[in-house]
Design brief:
Chain A is mostly helical. Helices cover 80% and strands 0% of the residues of chain A. In chain A, helix 2 (37-49) packs across helix 10. The radius of gyration of chain A is 22 Å and the shape is globular. In chain B, helix 3 (129-142) crosses helix 4 (158-171) and helix 6 (216-222) packs across helix 7. Chain B is built from seven helices and nine strands. Classes of the chains: A mainly alpha (256), B alpha/beta (277). Chain A: The chain crosses the membrane at residues 7-29, 64-85, 97-117, 123-143, 188-208, 220-241.
Chain lengths: 256, 277
């Protein structure tokens, strides 16, 4: 059954790629907008060979990771603290909930005004986006911990630090990783958006420049590359989660 | 320091004035305890409950659901405080916890394996690690969990999970073991198995146990004495001594004396089930 699934999972996109290739070959679609997959691949290989692609990727990845980690750590700490401490929740929740709905890209001009054109505003946009996702998932997770778990901890007279270490952190860990996966996708979105606007040498600006000079193949290669970046990072988070949450019942894997 | 406290007090009683060795020593006293839950309306849960828990007895508490029997247990555990009155427990040892509780569910942590879950019972004890480990192993073996010590709860059945909870409560050798409908979520067969196991474990050692249940059969089979409570607000209706000797055979259930007792308790419950509702 699962083998059949694998075959289908691979065969479907391959089928569409072949269809696309044929359509381009036969002139059924305008290759100025839809260049054949083979020519996109060729351009991609060239870009990899002359180092442009990997260099852009490295630049983007660095900004993304710094922003993601900073935002995620702060968001997690704030979220868990707010989940546990009622006065903190009361004082910060309305403010953060209000700010949460502001599109993160909309504050980029403000950051540029304050911080200039360096690396900093890019990192901060990604960090803010990552912060909110971690914050929202951790405050919900912490407040959603089954009452029985906490009551048991109280009954066992665990110390405050034992309660955090042995009960609260492990209880929110599965949701933490769900949040992190969402945050990764969101961070890729934000960094590409920022690079569209700010230029520089990241993969986002490569895509943007390509359309301006009508280098369609290059553009496609960039898009595929960003897609892969998101995919690989998400996969990585899933793998880490599997190691870090060994107790999760196997049923979390999707039904076959 | 035993008077004038309106909250749960764990008082030290060095020597009790009981000299007659055949007299039952009082382990804990529930003194005029009332509990009112204050929400939009005030809900009285317990009404002037007065009771003793004797040293070494297995006390079962029965009552209609919502009568506050779990609340009472939580007060003994220190999880809740009486609105009025006090719970006084005499402490006889410094290195044993006063009470340990076995809950109905949600008490075995899914992120820890069986061994670590049971070890939690000793989280606050100052024992050296090897000593802790050997005590955990002893209880794992007594509850047939030895083979599962590195299994996660998601791999275990409900009956196994309650065994883990019981092992965790007993590993600390509490002065009073509290059990809040520990078998209520199990199917009938498992429930019987665990009752029988509990009879074996507790039957020997003269442990002080307070066991809340809504099953009369369970209350009679396990208990030395049954406290019958009324519907909300809970009051103590009666205290009934169970005349059967220990060690008890689970076959006891079938005896006419057992059935008679069950009938008697049932009538008592029925009479007070809707007294104030």
């Amino acid at each position: 059954m699962s083998r059949q699934n694998t075959v289908l999972a691979i065969a479907t996109p391959v089928f569409f790629l072949v269809l696309w290739e044929l359509a381009a070959l036969l002139g059924l679609i305008d290759t100025r907008f839809f260049p054949a997959p083979s020519s996109i691949a060729r351009t991609g290989v060239n870009l990899v060979q002359d180092g442009v692609l990997l260099e852009s990727l490295a630049v983007t990845l660095r900004t993304l990771m710094v922003g993601l980690i900073v935002g995620n750590v702060i968001g997690t700490v704030v979220g868990v603290s707010m989940g546990l401490i009622r006065p903190l929740r009361a004082s910060l929740d309305p403010l953060l909930s209000g700010l949460y709905t502001v599109p993160k890209l909309a504050i980029l001009p403000l950051l540029l005004l304050m911080l200039g054109l360096g690396e900093m505003p890019r990192v901060i946009v990604v960090a803010i986006g990552s912060f909110f996702i971690a914050w929202i998932s951790m405050i919900e997770a912490t407040m959603g911990i089954a009452h029985g778990y906490l009551e048991t901890a109280e009954s066992l007279e665990l110390t405050r630090s034992q309660r955090l270490r042995l009960v609260i952190f492990p209880a929110v860990l599965p949701e933490y990783f769900v949040g992190l996966r969402i945050a990764v996708g969101n961070a890729v979105l934000l960094i590409v958006g920022v690079e569209f606007v700010m230029g520089g040498s990241g993969i986002g600006s490569m895509i943007w420049n390509s359309w301006q000079i009508f280098a369609t193949e290059r553009m496609y290669a960039g898009i595929v590359c960003v897609g892969l970046l998101g995919y690989v990072l998400t996969k990585l988070v899933k793998m880490i989660a599997r190691v870090a949450v060994p107790w999760s019942p196997k049923s979390t894997s999707r039904r076959r | 320091m035993t008077t004038a406290h309106t909250n749960t007090m764990h008082t030290e009683v060095g020597s009790l004035e009981v000299t007659d060795s055949s007299a039952r020593q009082i382990k804990a006293t529930i003194r005029d305890v009332s509990k009112v839950y204050r929400g939009r309306t005030q809900v009285p849960a317990l009404d002037n409950v007065d009771a003793h828990i004797y040293d070494g007895e297995f006390l079962t508490i029965v009552g209609p659901s919502g009568c506050g029997k779990s609340t009472l247990l939580r007060m003994i555990n220190g999880l809740q405080r009486p609105s009025e009155g006090a719970v006084e427990i005499s402490k006889s040892s410094t290195d044993r916890p006063l009470t340990s509780m076995v809950f109905q569910d949600y008490s075995v942590y899914p992120w820890m394996n069986v061994f670590d879950n049971v070890s939690l019972g000793l989280a606050r004890s100052g024992l050296p690690k090897p000593e802790k480990h050997s005590r955990v192993r002893v209880w794992l073996d007594r509850l047939d969990l030895g083979k599962f010590e590195s299994a996660y709860p998601s791999e275990l059945s409900g009956g196994m999970l309650q065994r883990v909870a019981i092992a965790r409560a007993l590993v600390a050798e509490p002065e009073i073991l509290l059990m809040d409908e520990p078998f209520a979520a199990l199917d009938a067969q498992l429930r019987r198995r665990l009752q029988e196991e509990l009879l074996e474990i507790v039957g020997d050692a003269g442990r002080t146990v307070v066991f809340v249940t809504h099953s009369l059969e369970e209350a009679i089979l396990l208990g030395d004495r049954v406290l019958v409570m009324s519907a909300r607000p809970g009051r103590i209706v009666d205290s009934v001594d169970i005349p059967f000797d220990r060690p008890r055979d689970p076959e006891l259930r079938k005896s006419p004396e057992f059935r008679d007792l069950e009938e008697r308790l049932w009538l008592m419950l029925k009479e007070h089930a809707t007294a104030t509702a």
